[in-house]
Amino acid sequence: MKYKFIENVPKEEYIKFFNSFKYSHFLQSYAWGEAFKETRGKIPCYIGLKDEKNNLVAAALLLKKNMPLGLCYYYCSRGYLIDFKDKELLKIFTEEIKKYLKRTNAIYLKINPEIMYQEIDKDGNRIEKGKNNIDIFNNLINLGYKHQGFVKLYENNEPRYTFRRYFEQYKNMDDIKKSISKTFMQTVHRSYSYNLKINLNSNVEHFFELNKSNAAKDEFIQYSDEFYKKLYEYGKKYKNILVFDVSVNGKELYEETLKNHEKIKDDFDKGLIKKKNKADSLDKLKRLEKELKMFEPYKEEENLTICSLINGIANDMMWTMYIGNNRLGEYLFAVNRIYFETIEYCFNHNYRFLDLYGTVGDPNTNCKNLKGLHAYKKKFGDTYIEFIGEFDLINKPFMYKILPKLLHIYRKLKK
Questions:
Q1: What is the pLDDT of residues 185-210, one digit of tens each?
Q2: HEC states along 298-319?
Q3: DSSP state of 66
Q4: Residue spans of the chain under pLDDT 70
Q5: Residues with Cβ within 8 Å of residue 207, at least 6 apart in sequence
Q6: Closest alpha carbon to 317 in 112, 75, 25
């Protein structure tokens, strides 16, 4: 069969193929490409391969970064949109991309397909006789791709490990609840006592500020406020984004807490507390005093957003991409609640899986806050997955070798 390489796939055709492809990824969406074009200085290139019937059989979003001297390089995040098990099709697509790299004077192209490398246990060790895609890995090497290593932390552009919940194995929400850590579910239940309001796809107006503390704590890069807004704008337009946020009436929260505090204190003063209940009542009084101090700064707020989660969508798959919360949101267990609400939403709307988008391959690492992040996601994340990692398709070996130095000089000159 003859195939034709398409350098600029029309928007409607690309979106149609993306929406019909079983293994699409949010980071290959049209929304992702347009958001990066407007806020990150990257040029989205939508390429594809057509068969004799003029149907797309493969496609990819390449983010192009222009360099001095007419050079450039490309990044294909979580791509390609192709059946990697079809060796002949992948070979043809790769050969056409090599020609494309030459025509556009590119140094290299980086890809990191979301393909499982091998089944692993809870400690990140290979499961003997478990499933694997080593054949796909070896085929990529044979086609000329250079693997960037079996990294275990966050050294590359995208995490090589994740937690993912496949919903087909669950009959109902009760089964799902049983699979989640008991301590996690206890905090979810406690969150209901604060009368939190769950909002779906409202906006991302407060996200940047809420995300600040998370980015600083976990030492992750925070994008600009404009990026999140553009991502939401395009994501909502093309149905690739779903935002959950949690809000609370700070005024009612404070007043109710004050009312409960005064009631218990009054009962103490009047001697209405029985001796056997004094210890418990005293503990409750101390907790209410602590909460009054916590809630006091928000007592004038009647609709306060305390947590927000941006999810990426591709067909029946969802990825939790970015989360933000403030101190009040943490105290009211809004973070755990928002993750639980997302899980429940996916199950009720027949999603294939929910991916928590990233963890480490070494659960015992002492690097940054990654050990704690892994332990947290493990409580409700379900299946622990290892991906095959990043690959570079190199067009200019010498320039590829010195590129890190060139980028360092280029960034210094820009400053």
A1: 999 999 999 999 999 987 898 899 89
A2: HCCCCCEEEEEEEEEEECCEEE
A3: E
A4: 216-219, 410-411, 414-415
A5: 225, 228, 243, 308, 310, 322, 324
A6: 25
